[in-house]
Structures are given as structure tokens and as C-alpha cells.
């Protein structure tokens, strides 16, 4: 059983399109995240939800909109895709939002290529 | 703000060589420190952690010691294997930073390790 699963694994699309990436965790965790990893492997948080409520919203263009229908799901919708959005997007979860002693569980990533 | 700096990669070693990946940090409070590893085509997974000064985290032959005086958390392994080839990320969580770090890990830029037979 995959703990954190995200779909699709690969996403190739044209500039200007709208796309969504889905994420589900079966660990019973309260907190979920979206991270973006660029081509140089640099990893940066985008959003975090705790019990369906947004708790972190980094400086991300408002073309990116997360949606959490329940605490086991956190989807990422991207409008008007741009070339610079090409990256690997990772979903993650943790039991608590306070990460002093917590471990993040990551999905295997979605490689987005915008042409 | 918080930041993590790792040594530049990529690092290429022969099997059974000694590994050190340097990591230094800047934090406003007393952070917890982590090493995560990303194997090819996979998400990150926790390798080891340390939550207070002088703690040593260890797992799978890897070790790192939390050094508050040098603000460092260097990763070491005495004898690497081909299966250790991956990207290694140092990270911190700083729960004392007035709530601004709530729910957030700050990652270093990652170090690519390749081990040859």
C-alpha cells in the first residue's frame, strides 16, 4: 500500500493550459504539503494544509490553487501554465504540523513539463 | 530567516570510500535537524534526525552530529555502497521562530552522490 500517492507521475502539456495534480495519503495524517523541486534539485515548500485548512502559503503565483476536500487529499490546480512551471512537484504528509520532531512522508513526485 | 547550506555537488566516490557531506544552517531558534535522501525516481525519505545540540542521528551506517557551536550537521558514512547513490538533503525545522516556520521544513539545495563499483 502506497502511503502518499500522487497522480499523474508525468504530465506534459502546452503553455496556457490548465492542469491538476492529485494527492492522497492513507496514513491518517492531519497535515499535507506541496513542494516544488526545480531542475537543480532545489526543494521549496509551496503550500501546507492542516485538517483541510491552509496554514502555509509561500510566495506562489495565484495561478496555483490548492484544494483539500478532506484531510486525506490535497490537490494542486495550475491555471495558465508557463514554461517556468516545469518542475517536479512533490506531495507530502505528516501527523502533526509542528515539525520539531516529525517526519515528512513524500509521494514519488509528478514531473511536469510545459512546452 | 532560516537557511541551510550544503556542500556543492556532485560527489563521486568509489565503493567503500569515506563520505562526508557538509551542512551548515542559520536559524532564529533551536531547530531540529534532518537528513533526507532521494533515490532515483522516488520521493524523499527521512534518513536520520537530531533534535537538540550534541545529539547524534544514525541510520543505515550514516551518522550526523548536531553541533550548535559551529551550526553544522555534517553527514558521514565510513564505507559507501553503490546503492547509496542518491540526492541527499539537509533540512531544519525551527519551531521557535514565532510561528513563521510552523509546518515547514527548510531544505538545503541537495547534494548528488554517485558511487562507482
Q: Top keywords for this entry?
A:
heterodimer; A: 115 residues; mainly beta; seven-stranded mixed β-sheet; four-stranded antiparallel β-sheet; globular; B: six-stranded mixed β-sheet; 48% strand
Quick rundown:
The complex is a heterodimer of chains A (115) and B (117). Chain A is mainly beta and 115 residues long. Chain A has no helices and 11 strands.
Overall description:
The complex is a heterodimer of chains A (115) and B (117). Chain A is mainly β. Helix content of chain A is 0%, strand content 55%. Chain A contains no helices and eleven strands. Chain A has strands spanning 4-7, 10-13, 19-25, 31-37, 43-50, 53-57, 64-70, 73-78, 87-94, 105-106, 110-114. In chain A, the strands form two sheets. In chain A, strands 2, 4, 5, 6, 9, 10 and 11 form a seven-stranded mixed β-sheet that branches. Chain A has a four-stranded antiparallel β-sheet with strand order 1-3-8-7, with no helix packed on it. Chain A is globular. By secondary structure, chain B is mostly beta strands. Chain B is built from no helices and twelve strands. In chain B, the strands form three sheets. In chain B, strands 2, 5, 6, 10, 11 and 12 form a six-stranded mixed β-sheet that branches. In chain B, strand 7 and strand 8 (62-65) form a beta hairpin. The radius of gyration of chain B is 14 Å and the shape is globular. The termini of chain B are far apart. The mean pLDDT of chain B is 90. The interface between A and B is medium-sized, with 28 and 24 residues.
